[in-house]
């Protein structure tokens, strides 16, 4: 985990760069959202100058039939909060077999490698701005949530120190990574079995937590107009602030972040 420091307390403008990467014959079109210089608010600005500072990496993986653009709320929230967020668009985005055989998890590892390399590439706009000391974070929803859990189990990536699988199912036995893992799930999810995610949570050592949206379906709690979206957003961001910045104040806010009439919270943070 990162050495203790405070995460940024003000929001950033958002920049975005697009890359046409690949892993073997698999196309990995990736948008990287990042903190940009300028006034916060508004849409991401293509190729905007990166803000002053050194920022950790927190990746996002989309769900079935989508691209990274389907999850603007999550990718933009991460960038505006002070994270560099690579968000691949998987070319076989309806093929759940590519999740179960590990291709999506391996794709994410490749995207992480390519993203981190930009920080050490002379002349690249990200050079000197990517914090690699604390490891990396990964997150995603549905097939992207399964991909995220796969990176902790069957296809582990030991650079990962924080993970947020959203609406996932259990992808296997923990691989022993030292990662802080937050599950987010609706307990009326008709697509990805809530009880399977609960089993995945039970298998992991602390630090871990589980945010349940009571009565919620497969993903309504990821949309800003949902009544309890603030509980999703604030818990999600503070989990990464704690895990990647070492911000203990963010850790201490987690229970308050998660608490509402429409949510329940379970945690073993190992404090």
TrEMBL record:
SUPFAM superfamilies: alpha/beta-Hydrolases (SSF53474). This is Mucin. It holds the Pfam family Chlorophyllase. Keywords: Hydrolase, Lipid degradation, Lipid metabolism. It comes from Streptomyces hygroscopicus.
